[in-house]
Amino acid sequence: MSMETLNKLVARSIIDPGVVQAFTAGRIGDVISELDFSAELCDSLSDIEAESWAEYAVLAYRYVKAAEEREVRIQLPSPLEGLLPDEKRAEDEQAA
Q1: Residues 38 and 2: beta-carbon distance below 8 Å
Q2: Reported pTM
């Protein structure tokens, strides 16, 4: 989701000169706060220091990519689960 939001920000900067002007004036945090970034990511993106908008976009991409990799991925059970005997479950079944 964050990468899509970053793409929207970069695309918006192409058609809306206000984005680059906010970056140049040091107020990019105002623009970022309007988007769907998490509070932590919003703070990180607001604190990026860059010489140009292009450099900022590259650094922001790295931050967002790193943040997405830290998100918990779906943990699927092992294919062996259920095939090997579970001693506790076996004891419960024999208790009856």
Answers
A1: yes
A2: 0.69
Distance CA 40, CA 44 (A): 6
Asked whether the beta carbons of 56 and 23 are under 8 A apart, the reply is yes
Q: Whole-angstrom distance between the N-terminal and C-terminal Cα of the chain? A: 50
pLDDT by residue (tens digit) across 45-73?
999 999 999 999 999 999 999 888 776 56
In the chain, the amino acid numbered 10 is: V
pLDDT tens column, 72-88 = 566 677 776 666 666 65
Question: What length is written for the chain?
Answer: 96
